[in-house]
Amino acid sequence: MLKPEHIGIAVKDLAISIPLFEKLLNSQCYKTEKVESEGVNTAFFKTGDTKIELLASTDATGVIARFIEKKGEGFHHIAFEVNDIYAEMERLKNEGFILLNEIPRPGADNKLICFLHPKNTNGVLIELCQQKL
Ligand code: ZN
After folding, report:
1. Distance from the alpha carbon of residue 70 to the mean position of ligand 1, in angstroms
2. N or C: which end of the chain has fewer CB within 10 A?
3. What is the DSSP letter of 99?
4. Residues 52, 29, 64, 100: what is their CA dihedral angle, to the nearest 10 degrees?
5. Number of Cβ atoms within 10 Å of the Cβ of 118
């Protein structure tokens, strides 16, 4: 059973969205982190057992910038925590899901991550994440 770890929300400007979500969630942003390899600046909020991750593009051509151009700001992905990302990637591949990266890559929050293609998941972008050891 996969356990939700966080929900990713694409935003244009963290300087606007961090105070907005602090008000909305009645919870302070506890961490911001730039993930150079993904071209994103992230901001995290604790919400019970899960987290909200805001994602803003570091430049005009990044994946988040292109996502917002197409769909606007809003829900971007749901991330599920796994203990063994390699085993889970293998399992999902065998189930016919398409992995967007064949090798786990470093994500925010000291995680290894892998995304599944939304065309096989009812349009939902799914992230698998495993705490880096
Ligand atoms: Zn994420």
Report:
1. 19
2. N
3. B
4. -50
5. 14
User: How far away, in angstroms, is 79 Cα from ligand 1 center?
Assistant: 6
Is pTM, for the whole model, over 0.90?
yes
How far apart are the C-alpha atoms of 20 and 24, rounded to whole Å?
6
Length of the chain: 133
For the segment 43-98, what is each residue's pLDDT rounded down to a tens digit?
Answer: 999 999 999 999 999 998 999 999 999 999 999 999 999 999 999 999 999 999 99
Measured in degrees and rounded to the nearest 5, phi and psi for residue 100 equal -80, -20
Query: Model confidence at 133, in pLDDT bands (50, 70, 90)?
Result: confident
Cβ 84 vs Cβ 90: under 8 Å: no
Distance between CA atoms of residues 66 and 39, nearest Å: 11
Cα distances from 26 to residues 5, 29, 56, 111, in angstroms, run 19, 10, 21, 26
Report whether pLDDT(37) > 90: no
For residue 78, the CA-to-ligand 1 centroid distance in Å is: 7
The protein residues having their C-beta less than 5 angstroms from ligand 1 (an ion) are 8, 53, 79, 127
